[in-house]
Structure formats: structure tokens, C-alpha cells
């Protein structure tokens, strides 16, 4: 029992470190090498990808058809967003859209998939504040994304660092 618990704790610590690394890579991609223009490309690219899949509603239908409807539904409106892996995302979208997104950012498809697994839940969440996939907002910006990243798990209406920084970027 003790060995299993120790192995589980090591696995959890490794996963947490990997999540932090992915989040930092995501922020690097959003901010781009030259500043905010790369961020705009990444955010715009994710939103273009969503539109190419039939919008939020079409994308959530694809997730449902692929057996991942609960994941996509968790991204609609408030509440915690369930994570998705790069392989699950590729299974739903296919390699073509991920490759096109990678080309837009000038990164490998693997790096693009890492950005997408972080960005899609946040962007869809921000596009559907009322939980309505059929009537999403028209778009999100860097402030929304940064607020979602930093405010994510603990951020409610009170905000926190993510809301403060996200609000500053909107001004």
C-alpha cells in the first residue's frame, strides 16, 4: 500500500509539473516572441478553428459524437472546465485543423495541440457565459484568456489576480 501511495503521489507531482509547463508554454505562445501580436494570432487562430468546426455548437456536437460530450459541456458557462488531452483533441478534430493552427503560429503540431488543450476550454467558457452553445459571444480577447488562465480554478465573481490582470489588459 505504501509503495502504491508513493507512486501515486509521484505521478501526481509529475502531472502537476507537466501542467505548469504546458501553461507556461501556452502563455509563451499567446504572448508571442514579439509581444501581444503572437497572442492575437493564437487567440484568433483558436476562434477561427472553432468557427471552422461549425462554431461552438458544432464543435460541442463533434465532442458528443466522439464520446467526449461531458468534457465539452463542462466548458459551457460557469463552473470547472474538464481537461482534455492532445490525443483526445486530435481524435475529435483530426490532424488537419491542428496542423493548420500550428502553421498559423509557426510551431509544431504537438506544440499547437498543447496550446489548444489549454485554450479551447477557456475560450469556449468565455464565449458562452450563459452556457448556450447556440448563441455564443462574438469573440474573446487577451484579457479574457489571461483572466481565465490565472483565475481558473479559484476565480469566482471575486476575481483574484487573473481578473485584475485580465481587466488591465482590456483597458
Structure write-up:
By secondary structure, the chain is mostly helical. Helix content is 72%, strand content 0%. The chain has nine helices and no strands. α2 packs across α3, α2 runs antiparallel to α6 and α6 packs across α7. The radius of gyration is 16 Å and the shape is globular. The chain starts with a helix and ends with a helix. The N terminus and C terminus are likely disordered.
**How far from one another are the termini?**
54 Å
Given the structure, what is the number of helices?
Answer: 9
Q: Kindly report the oligomeric state of this protein.
A: single chain
Runs in which pLDDT lies below 50 for 5 or more consecutive residues are 1-12, 33-38, 152-171
Give the strand content. under 5%
* Radius of gyration based on Cα positions: 16 Å
Shape assignment: globular
**Biggest pleated-sheet summary:** none
- What's the total number of strands? 0
Rounded mean pLDDT score: 72
The run of helices and strands is HHHHHHHHH
Structural class: mainly alpha
Helix content: over 70%
Amino acid at each position: 500500500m505504501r509503495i502504491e501511495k508513493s507512486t501515486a503521489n509521484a505521478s501526481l507531482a509529475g502531472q502537476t509539473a507537466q501542467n505548469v509547463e504546458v501553461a507556461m508554454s501556452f502563455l509563451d505562445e499567446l504572448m508571442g516572441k514579439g509581444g501581444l501580436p503572437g497572442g492575437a494570432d493564437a487567440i484568433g487562430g483558436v476562434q477561427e478553428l472553432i468557427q471552422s468546426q461549425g462554431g461552438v455548437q458544432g464543435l460541442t456536437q463533434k465532442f458528443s459524437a466522439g464520446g467526449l460530450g461531458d468534457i465539452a459541456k463542462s466548458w459551457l458557462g460557469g463552473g470547472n472546465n474538464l481537461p482534455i488531452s492532445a490525443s483526445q483533441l486530435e481524435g475529435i478534430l483530426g490532424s488537419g485543423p491542428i496542423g493548420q493552427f500550428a502553421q498559423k503560429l509557426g510551431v509544431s503540431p504537438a506544440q499547437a495541440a498543447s496550446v489548444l488543450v489549454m485554450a479551447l476550454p477557456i475560450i469556449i467558457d468565455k464565449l458562452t457565459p450563459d452556457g448556450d452553445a447556440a448563441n455564443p459571444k462574438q469573440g474573446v480577447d487577451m484579457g479574457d484568456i489571461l483572466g481565465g488562465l490565472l483565475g481558473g480554478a479559484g476565480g469566482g465573481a471575486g476575481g483574484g489576480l487573473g481578473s485584475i490582470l485580465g481587466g488591465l489588459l482590456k483597458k
